[in-house]
Write a structure and sequence with these properties.
The chain is α/β, with parallel strands linked by helices and 362 residues long. The protein is globular, with a radius of gyration of 21 Å. It is built from nine helices and 15 strands. Homodimer.
């Protein structure tokens, strides 16, 4: 069988060692003779699991003690609504920084719950190259209860690598597609949230990291499942949680800790991305339309500028075991998502195929 490399933007590939451990334990977890999916989420063993998962995630991501970690459901889209319901206060409005599809979608959802101002922070030059044109909002941020942005736009491959300056205003970040890809200063943020299906684990669970002083301020009509105070007081279990997804996340945390932590993760990711971008930079057959300072380390977009050739590329790549390279329907072209679990061998295989395809179709 051809070696398969999964470049899906999400649900994405997971570490092989994690899947092998889950496979080994599937029918007999903790010598209980049952699967982790079959035990009570309030039982002693599962409570020990979530306690350790919290501890491991804190160590891995360097999360300060004055932050709560919530393991919730509903994906990042659920948080698009939960954020305004929990954070809108006396000022009565929020600022949303639009850098692409998902930040724009978050702003659209927030309008259902509060007044917002939306500010585009990207520009496109005469050659179609996209860049982020502003990251300092300290002169306007104080009029808002919070400022929201998306650190990495999965569809376009735009990454905001400089943390926006919002002064003392609460900064909220959707990190769904680049969480745990590098070290960050958590103390710069009021809330960080992320769907799990890129770097954390499988689809079905969402992590919210929220500073404790922001908990307990939800509007009265906030559904309990979206209320950070209710969830924090219930260990994220006001209803039955996605136990298998939580378990898999716990395995991912341990795996990353035992393979060098985020320092090692970051170096591997930078090496993979640099290798692919170096190839694109020298190519006259493929184009990437993101300014170098904003190129995503996780989602590398490229195109031949010919829809028929793009479709042929995707079909032939799939036949060679390079899966899920078709770009999002919003943008087209191709997209290689090279999250933490993608080995360097996968990137090398992609580059080799790209080079072969270019020579055969030039």
């Amino acid at each position: 069988m051809t070696q398969v490399y999964n470049f899906s933007a999400g649900p994405a590939m997971m570490p092989k060692a994690v899947l092998e451990q889950a496979q080994k334990e599937l029918l007999n977890w903790q010598n209980q003779g049952t699967s982790v999916m079959e035990v009570s989420h309030r039982g002693k063993l599962f409570m020990e699991l979530i306690t350790q998962a919290d501890k491991d995630f804190r160590e891995l991501f360097h999360i300060p003690d004055n932050y709560k970690i919530l393991f919730l459901q509903g994906g990042a889209r659920g948080q698009f609504a939960a954020i305004p319901m929990n954070l809108i206060g006396e000022k009565g409005k929020a600022l949303y920084l639009n850098s692409g599809h998902w930040s724009g979608t978050a702003a659209k959802e927030a309008r259902n719950f509060c007044e917002i101002d939306e500010l585009s922070i990207i520009e496109t030059d005469a050659n179609g190259v996209i860049s982020v044109n502003r990251t300092d909002f300290s002169n306007i941020a104080e009029q808002y209860d919070y400022v929201h942005y998306c650190t990495n736009e999965t569809i376009s491959g735009v990454e905001i690598k400089e943390i926006p300056n919002v002064g003392n205003t609460v900064l909220v970040a959707d990190m769904s597609s680049n969480i745990l890809s590098s070290k960050i200063d958590i103390s710069k943020f009021g809330v960080i949230y992320a769907g799990a299906q890129k770097n954390l684990g499988p689809a079905g669970i969402t992590i919210v990291i929220v500073r404790e002083d922001l908990i307990g301020k939800a509007r009265k009509d906030t559904p309990s499942i979206w209320n950070y105070e209710v969830q924090a007081n219930a260990d994220s279990m006001i209803n039955t949680p996605p136990t298998f997804a939580w378990y898999l996340c716990s395995l991912v945390f341990k795996h990353l800790l035992t393979t060098g932590g985020l320092e090692a993760v970051e170096q591997r990711n930078l090496s993979k991305a640099q290798r692919l971008y170096d190839y694109l930079n020298q190519s006259t057959f493929y184009r990437n339309y993101i300014a170098e300072q904003n190129r995503s380390v996780m989602n590398v977009t490229f195109t031949t500028d010919n829809d028929e050739l793009n479709a042929k590329f995707v079909a032939e790549a799939t036949a060679c075991g390079l899966q899920a390279l078709k770009g999002h329907k919003v943008l087209g072209g191709m997209r290689a998502s090279i999250y933490n679990a993608m080995p360097i061998e996968g990137v090398d295989a992609l580059i080799a195929f790209m080079d072969k395809f270019a020579k055969e179709n030039s």
